[in-house]
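subagent[fold] <- orchestrator: predict structure for attached chain, return tokens only, no commentary.
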Amino acid sequence: MKKILISLLLCGILLPAQAQTQEKTVALEPSDRYLNFPIDRSGDKVKARIILGEEVLDEFTLKLARTREETDFWTFFRTDRYQGQDVSVEVDQPSLREQTMGLIHADATFPGQDSLYREAYRQQLHFSSQRGWNNDPNGLVYEKGTYHLFYQHNPYGWNWGNMHWGHAVSKDLIHWEERANALFTPTHEQMAFSGSAAIADENSSGFTKNGVHPIVAAYTRTGVGENLALSYDGGQTFESFDGNPVVEHDGRDPKIFWYEPGGHWVMVVYDESHTRKIAGGESARLYQHAIYTSPDLKDWQYQSAVSGFFECPELLKMPVKGQPGTSKWVMYGADGKYMVGTFNGKEFTVEQPLTKYEHGGAFYASQMYNNTPDGRPIQIGWFQITTENMPFNQCMTIPMKLTLEYKKGQYLLNPSPVKELSKLHDQTHVFEDKLLTGEDRFKAPVAGELLHLTAEFELGDAHRLGLNINGYKLTYNHLRGDFNGVHYKIPHDQPLKIEVVVDRSSMEVFVNDGELYFAEPHDNVKAEKTLEVFSNGGGESAKSFLKRLEVHRMQSIWK
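subagent[fold] -> orchestrator:
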């Protein structure tokens, strides 16, 4: 039986009048991996913190269930690093009953672990955290054979809050293993907001120790500024840089990378520090991506800014498809709108103004990987999908490779699923050469909630053609020249290709290798499972031609 030490009386009426907290000390056994908390989503929010000796390990708010019967789900604090030691839990609510505090316990498992990754609405092709809320991907970096995915995480609640950096790792960008949170909230006022990570392998910073080049995380510590944290053990633990904050301004979300031609580091960060004059002599705040440079990651100098963006900046150099030897720089923001231009290490010069990237509306705050082994520009975004009545909320997009092409007088930033997605292919079905006339429909004898499919059409004289996947319609209107309401005109002699990744709660759609991209929620669990190709409009003789439909049933990413 576990040894539980109660360091304060738990009955509120017996606490001294001046006491504002209740404290419970848990002696962790060598086998304990989780300190478990019961959550009542409709309960009152209380402040809590976990303490080891004099050190505050974590400080957070949560809706603590008062009884086991009121518990909607259980969440946890990972105790792997503290096994065999005593940790204390303080709750800023003296009226809690002894029964409530008694529910907090340590164990080798957490309640609900037996159904982990098999919950009704757990995405099976997209990463989501085991418990709690996630939003922005952070610190995407490749190191020694491992892709790191850090992310904004509320481990103690279903809604946004308590921003930590969650952490997951993968060898192939597809199968993910969630690890303990990487960055914590030492106070309620200083959360670990979004940022990026890089490997300080140039040793321009002097951070290398014993031959180990650390993962350097650059992140916004709310109320403080842009901070650095260093990890010498593959992202398992981080230590704060003594010189923090390295940038103080009104902004957030630093993206750092090494700029080889100039031999210096670059930080692109969202900034609201600057203003402009408007009518009447008033000042209006500018929403910008500011550019800073540093020789050593420690001392940063402001260089320039580009207006028109909001949050989560990205800046990267990309080759132009079909133009050997030609590259352009792309800058984009949280909503995926991007500009194309040149960059000299200090200033970004705009050549193409804001261009829309995603058309579904559930895509936000994407980030590119630093240091990919093959140089591929790989992106992951926050997929804004609400999962009601689940112990987790939101997920990530699938990893995508970006391509920049010049077409019809503009640069297009095109995403497509990474090639590694094919590792999940299970049963494959191929259907070819289907002529559709009038109101014809081809109903494929395969359907489901986990699919990866590609349909290739030759345009005829039918007004509309497309796919119906579990009630989710994708329609190209040949007459008007639009795809699902987005202007997109295809010449008569060119094909139409629609690629779709179908998961339990979502659709990701790539038209003609990403010239259009849609990320949208869709309930494929409750939907009637169907896969139809349709063609209509233009009369009984109007026709379209399905050249090829390739459908893969998919395995889960969760082992």
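orchestrator: received. Logging for downstream: The chain has three domains: 4-114, 132-417, 421-554. The mean pLDDT is 93.
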